[in-house]
Amino acid sequence: MKLADFQSLFQERVLAGSGEADKPLLKKLRLSPRGATPETLLDVYQTGYRIRLADFVSQDHPGLRAILGDETFETLVDDYIDWRPSCEPNARFFTTRLPDFMRENSPWRDDARAVSLALFERAMVDAFDAPDKTPLAVQALADFTPEDWPRLAFDFDPSLTLLELAAGTVRAYDAAINEEEAEKVDAPTAGDQVEYAAVWRVDHESAYRQLEPDEYVALCEARAGHAFGDICQITAFQQSGEITPERLAQCLSSWFEDGMIIGVRVRDDHSSNTPSSA
Amino acid sequence: MEKPAPLGYGLGLRPVYYDEILSSRPPVDWFEIISENYMLAGGKPLAMLDRIRADYPVVMHGVSMSLASTDPLNFDYLRQLQALAERVQPAWISDHVAWTGVHGVTLHDLLPIPYTRESLAHIVERILRVQDFLKRRLVVENASTYVSFVDSEMSEHEFVREMAERADCLLLLDVNNVFVSSFNHGFDPIAFIDGVPAERVVQFHMAGHTNNETHRVDTHDQPVCDEVWALYEHARRRCGDVSAMIERDDNYPPLSELLDELQHMRDIDARIANERALSAA
Question: What is the pTM of this model?
């Protein structure tokens, strides 16, 4: 048997378990001098594969395990492992597509609260090893004149993710990581109610906080590169109430304080790619 | 044979020990990292590594090069590995006599091969290409295996010896893996150690494993057992001054327990040195 054929057979045995298809592989195995059956020895590889991947999913999704319960969570993990084999050299990135899997596949897509918590925890993991950038202090604004302010645009830390979640998602995550008793924690609502959150990294650790709806819209627009003066007008179209310059300044101050902003520039009316000024 | 200078006694760098290493600067001569755990855009693992690297030599140990796979070499992976090496400036880079998947799949395990002429030619050619790409000699480790194959045309140590000589690579002798595989397949571990080219060995791995009675599994979650310590002594007598380390990847004990295992290594080596001095006198 050629090496390539052998490897295809062996891999299929690891992914699919024992069955008719692995008979040609079994013929190629030497007998164990200790009496272990070929199935037992091949299972070392098969169970090892599944255990390793399941461990990564468990590490990344403590909140999901808490709201689903151990048994349902393990069913989810088994379904996810069966969905597609890992293709990442680094096993920790195997978990990246769990929220997509849940959104696309029954019965998981019907559990909006679980999908929401999976998305939130995914953002927490992604923030952990996003590229390194140095946050700016609010004093950076002192470099700009009052006339510049309407045209100020901001660059945000690459770890920042903005999320629209099922209401109660952040509370459920808090409870899970603080190991509160499950029965005392309200699960995220499955209805139409939503909440907003920002996830990013501060001092090497993932951070998060809930956002008011107006701050969420403003932050989305600011991160899209819109200038300070434009954001007030844009938000007026996107929600019932207009965000005032004072409220936007308050938000801006907290974004600096949270370490979300890494650059400030004066946006040229003719181009959105004016070089950074701070 | 030109080899990197021995580094002394090392430990596998694991996140659970970051804070203690940085605060107490333990008496460890060097650390080995799992390369893939630091092939990241940024964040805490790289920041911790930079701080530890400032005080300790580091070697890079990979688990995903898939040297024996019949898939094409993954040059995206190798480029990331090279970038990490430029940052870390490791004393050497190692990976395994193993494959991790085919058809684009990664099984996150070090999978066995039949020791055939075809496998040998295949892995030698790939090691040579990797060495050309990385512009350095690769260090290649024997893996633990749980199955062996009727198609094998040579023993594992014969395969490793010929691979190392034809690819002109260096070797990482995992003493625990020798023991685990010898138990599972019924070969003599001493013959294995005596069969590998000692002049190419630059590093020893020591670790614990799980005894399932009919087979042993390389779990790295136990202290080193007595049989493996005995084998270490034999390997040390044969290979001489080689960098040695303890691997621990689960069931993490206090760092002091790993330091005790390093001290046990030092004690064995001191005893061997004394015996040699006495016999030379």
Answer: 0.94
